[in-house]
Each structure stands twice: as structure tokens, then as C-alpha cells.
Amino acid sequence: MAISETGADAGIDTVYRSDCPSRPILDQIADKWSMMVMAVLDKPTRFNEIKRRLEGVTQRVLTQTLRRLERNGMIVRRVLPTSPVGVEYSLTPLGESLREPFGRLYDWTVNNADEIRAHQMDYDQRVQS
């Protein structure tokens, strides 16, 4: 439920408007790669380690995802004083606050994956007929 500047009840439909400020934020943090990156950041982690853990992500997409998460305050990027220079990423307190809801969504997905796949197969058979 959204709350507007004019009161709790007046803004209930604000979230459905195209100019709702939550939309771009939700788009950016709730995409597949952002959720997966945040899931693997249980400790400060270097770029290549994140890439190794996320099978299928390209370097370009991972870089864009990390920049977007950093811009939104979900992660912090730290340059390491090594040679060659290394970079590691970690969750901020704001990003850490998403671990529980993301974890629940992930658990729900795993727990319901078989049922969802069965519905998909049933649908696909009906549509193809």
C-alpha cells in the first residue's frame, strides 16, 4: 500500500501510476541479476568471485548490475590496495535489510517451483492444441 503526501488513504493507487517513485527503484533492485548478486554477497566479495558464482552472467551485465546496486545504496564498492588493484563489493545496511524479504521470495520460489512448472506445462499443452 502506498502512502501519499496527502495522507494514507489518498495515495493507495499512487503505486499504480507510471510516475510513482517506487517503480524505477523496484525495477532496478528486483531484477534477476540484482537479486542474485545480493544473495551471494554474504561477505565482501571480489568481482571475479561474484561472476564465478553466478553462472550465465556476462561481465557487462554484472558490471551494470553492480553499478546500479551501488547507485541505489544497496552495495558499496571498495578498491583494495593490491597489485594489480582489486575491487570488492559488500552489502550496505540498506542492502542487508533486503536479505530477509529476498530470502523469503527465494524460499517461496524453490518451494513452489515444481507446481509452477506443472502449471506451465499444462498451459503450454492447452495453448499448442
Automatic annotation (TrEMBL):
Stretches assigned to the HTH hxlR-type domain: 20-117
A Pfam family assignment: HxlR
Protein name listed in UniProt: Helix-turn-helix transcriptional regulator
Cited InterPro entries: HTH_HxlR (IPR002577), WH-like_DNA-bd_sf (IPR036388), WH_DNA-bd_sf (IPR036390)
Annotated keywords: DNA-binding, Transcription, Transcription regulation
SUPFAM superfamilies associated with the record: Winged helix' DNA-binding domain
Domain of life, source organism: Bacteria
Source organism per UniProt: Streptomyces triculaminicus
GO molecular function terms attached to this record: DNA binding
